[in-house]
Amino acid sequence: MSSPRETKTSTTDASSSAVRPAHQSSPFSRRTLFWVVGVSAVSLVAALFATAWDSEAPAEVEPSAYSESAIGHGALVATLRRLAIPVHVSRSRTAQKADTRGVLVVAEPWPWVTDETEASWKALAESDVPAALFVLPKRRGTADPDAPRFLGSVELVARASVQDVLDDLGSDAICERIGSATNWRGGGFSSTPTLEDPQLVVGGDIEPWIECDEGVLLGRLLEPAAGNSRRDFVHLVLSDPDLLSNHGLGRGSNAALALEILDRLRAGTTDGSVVFDESVHGYRGTDSFLAELARFPLVLLTVQAILCALVIGWSGLPRFGVPRPERPPLGQDKEQLLDNSARLISSRGRSASMLLPYWQDTLHAVTRQLCPGEATLDPDRRVEQLRSLGVRRGVDTDLQELSERVHRLFAHRQAPAGEVIAAAREIHAWRATMLGERP
């Protein structure tokens, strides 16, 4: 039996891998790879820029905590922060953020944003907000085309629309607009308002805190908003937003009065924070991170992640990528047959199990040719007989040690392939020497 040989890479495999261009080992061409990386990078940068832009204060001229226009409330928010008063400008779950801890300010809900206003009233009814200040709307404006953060024009909100907001609060008071106010009084505040053409509420179920002869500027709702029956809540209605707006805050002692009002409301809270509800101005936040991922600009990152996952999944398909090189055909000559057999045995991990039969066949073949009459001896006696014969012929192979090594490797089964091949080569060399064959 001819000697097993080490597994060798066929010349066909080597030559084919040598001439195959390196870039073909990738599932994509170089141009396609550049396009995939480029588009991914651009979309990522665009999403990050859009996220940064979206997180900034909107360019708004209507009354809101973001607005820097004359009718906005940005100056009040900035003043509170300079005084180290905790301030939150909220776009979602506002009542929960002010729940049991702070003052909720719902300033000038826009009558044309009805869905958000109704949702805010409902959330308030289900919360434990200890103090809330509702500011009735009065004006609306349009932006200056040359300066988008400032007013180009301004007009009064229809009195009927203001009355609708007051009715939504559960009050039966009447909204009135007068030319001037006389004899400001009440509430125990040290400052008095300075207002032009004040907007007041008259009659109804409002307990006056600040009033004049013509009506009430600031009052407590005797029946809290949205039907909440808790009597320890302090829900105030401020009829004229000019007291808090950017253009009115600096008039007279309006700023001091606004701070007194908020300080009195904050006195009954845990951490004294002031939460401005911007959902009533049409601003929307998110209830969860997953919901935010479905909205612009983070939806760009979501789409990119999905595309990457699809590409990775596609790359795992069996037919994805360049074709595998064809296996070389099996050789037909004796040497190729031995190589094929050795490769097959090695790939199955059974080289050690083939060593003992090879050793026994070799012993039998040498015995049959050199000692024909002793071919029926048992293996141990045959090994001793052939060892003695080898000594007389000048063969220095320790046949007993070789036999023990073969049996040890065979018993191991998972013996290293290198040791198995070395033993097989030694067996082959011993046979060739004993029989005078070409090694």
Cα-based radius of gyration, to the nearest Å: 46 Å
The tally of structural domains comes to 3
Query: Strand arrangement, largest sheet?
Result: 1-11-2-3-10-9-8
The residue fraction in helices comes out at 40-55%
Gap between N and C termini: 12 Å
Shape: rod-shaped
Beta content comes to 5-15%
Helix and strand string, N-terminal first? Answer: HHHEHEHEEEHEEEEEHEHHHHHHH
Describe this structure in words.
- There is one protein chain.
- With 439 residues, this protein is an alpha/beta fold.
- The protein has 3 domains: 28-58 and 300-318; 59-282, no CATH class; 334-435, no CATH class.
- Helix content is 43%, strand content 14%.
- It has helices at 11-19, 30-55, 74-82, 94-98, 114-125, 159-168, 254-266, 289-293, 298-315, 334-347, 351-370, 379-392, 399-412, 417-435; strands at 87-90, 103-107, 131-135, 139-144, 147-156, 174-177, 199-202, 206-212, 215-221, 234-238, 274-277.
- A 7-stranded mixed beta sheet has the order 1-11-2-3-10-9-8. Strands 4-5 form a two-stranded antiparallel sheet.
- Strand 4 and strand 5 (147-156) form a beta hairpin.
- Helix 11 (351-370) packs across helix 12, helix 11 runs parallel beside helix 14 (417-435) and helix 13 runs antiparallel to helix 14.
- It starts with 10 loop residues before the first helix and ends with a helix.
- 28% of the residues are buried.
